[in-house]
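Problem 12. The chain below contains 320 residues. Write out its predicted structure in token notation.
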Amino acid sequence: MEEIRYSRKRFAEVLGLSEHELARREGEAGLAPGGETHPLADLSLYRRCLGIRPPARPQRRQLFLNFKGGTGKTSLSTAYAFRLAEMGHRVLLVDLDSQGHATKCVGYEGEEQPHTLYDVLVRKLPLAEAVIRTPLEELSLLPSNLRMSTIDLALMPMAGREMKLRKAMEETEHDYDFVIFDAPPSFGLLNLNAIMASHDLFVPVLPDFLSFHGLKLLFETVAELEEDLDHALDQIVIVLNAYNPTTKIARAAREALETHYGDYLARSVIRQCTKFAQASSEGVPIFAYDPTSKGAEDVQSLVDEILPRLPAAMAKEKVR
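Solution.
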């Protein structure tokens, strides 16, 4: 992420300013005039110096999960998390998958990291010691690597094993506005912990009928948890991903989703976009790779759809 740079025009847009307003406010704040490009770290610096931050809000923990693999979940969750941080929200991205794909998508190699969530939940390491601070101050990462592959076995004999992640997140309540979990496509104790720790569940699905099998199992699991463990998610949001309206099968799958899961289906649709894969290969979120792409536009639409549904921002901003 250290290589991410914004053009002057894009930098002003992210801050919600025109280039003229940016230059004027730089002068008023005593900031040195920016050059033709800005590093990612400048975004946090300018937000702090210019007082351009969204109001603080109660922490929201959101899980991206589908029991079916290959739905583009990680590209979507990392883009969503990065965009929230780019907008000035304090975000913790938690990689729950031992493959470490979310870690790689934001520019870090999981195997090079000394700590993961395993150390937090099993070895009782303070969460803050496992977190990576990225060049964007508003975005932090709890990475993952292959050592996470045995976490379900390690959690099995523990008392209160289903609640370990929720308890670990309690110490982050005043540090982050959003905690975004990127989960592996499986069901085990770790994903059970993630569901129990979350307020919202995002379910990316592809526009094909095989995705319906994963949806059915996921909804059945959530219903059982609500009954057996007394945990109800505030909202479940199905996100149609990699949608190509020119294909008959995709249109038919969308119609079926609207018929059977219409109450849960997001209005925003993420269109098929090769820039997601290209961005992931570069280790940068799509908003840093190509903010004008269809993928970036659609994730922005999803953010704009979801934010108004959440509890209102606090009347007075927290000390940050």
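Discussion. The radius of gyration is 20 Å. Students who got a different answer should revisit the alignment rule from Section 12.3.
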